[in-house]
Amino acid sequence: MTRKATYQDLIEYCKTDWQQYIEHDFVKKLADGSLSMACFKHYLQQDYLFLKHYARAYALAVYKSPTLDLMRKSLPGVTSLVLEEISLHIDYCKDWGLNEADLEALDEDVATVAYTRYVLDKGMQGELADLYAALVPCAIGYAHIGQNLSKIQTINNPYQSWIDIYAGEDYQKVAQQQADFLDQLISEVSIDSQRFNQLADAFKTATRMEIAFWQQGLNQQ
């Protein structure tokens, strides 16, 4: 009997890229506190722009949902991003000397444009599962990174507060909910099917986009 897919199978499909994502040099420098302030500030600025498009993608997920139950599953992603997460990001940026006006005036860097438009395009062209396959690598990957970095003890790390956010129970819970929902969406997909390969390619491409997003921050050094 053919086994049905889970999000873990999507990670396994792009295992090399996944490791490069969650163990990127940007992440390693966050862990030991050696990342330059210029790199981190650029990342924070571009992440603000990313989050705005991320909210649009969740709004698209509501539109793409064929049932009310599925709409209810995607709606919290929109509301939490627009009403909470982006506001928290703005407050966090203030600690690094970046105010909301500065963030709004930014130009999108190349990797930011590529990543966000890919996710939105995948959602427009495909079904809800295609959109989530492109959305979820962000949430799951950051959860893995948060867990990994929380185990590393670095004295006076200026980025400890960032690590604490993604290692925290609240974020871990949200990431797991996203993973579980993707599992629900692909629960009837066989791992040896063409449909699985389509979803896995979307997941892999989004993972590669995450690598590029880290790299554009690191390039600021």
UniProtKB/TrEMBL annotation:
Highest taxon of the lineage: Bacteria
GO cellular component: cytosol
Keyword Flavoprotein: no
UniProt-listed InterPro entries: Haem_Oase-like_multi-hlx, Thiaminase-2/PQQC, Thiaminase_II, Thiamine_Salvage_TenA
GO BP term (any one): thiamine biosynthetic process
Catalytic activity: 4-amino-5-aminomethyl-2-methylpyrimidine + H2O = 4-amino-5-hydroxymethyl-2-methylpyrimidine + NH4(+); thiamine + H2O = 5-(2-hydroxyethyl)-4-methylthiazole + 4-amino-5-hydroxymethyl-2-methylpyrimidine + H(+)
Domain Thiaminase-2/PQQC: 18-218
CDD domains associated with the record: TenA_C_ScTHI20-like
GO molecular function ontology, one term from the record: thiaminase activity
Class of this enzyme: hydrolase
Record keywords: Hydrolase, Thiamine biosynthesis
Pfam family, one: TENA_THI-4
EC number: 3.5.99.2
Metabolic or biological pathway, per its Swiss-Prot or TrEMBL entry: Cofactor biosynthesis; thiamine diphosphate biosynthesis
Family membership: Belongs to the TenA family.
Function: Catalyzes an amino-pyrimidine hydrolysis reaction at the C5' of the pyrimidine moiety of thiamine compounds, a reaction that is part of a thiamine salvage pathway.
Protein's name in the database: Aminopyrimidine aminohydrolase
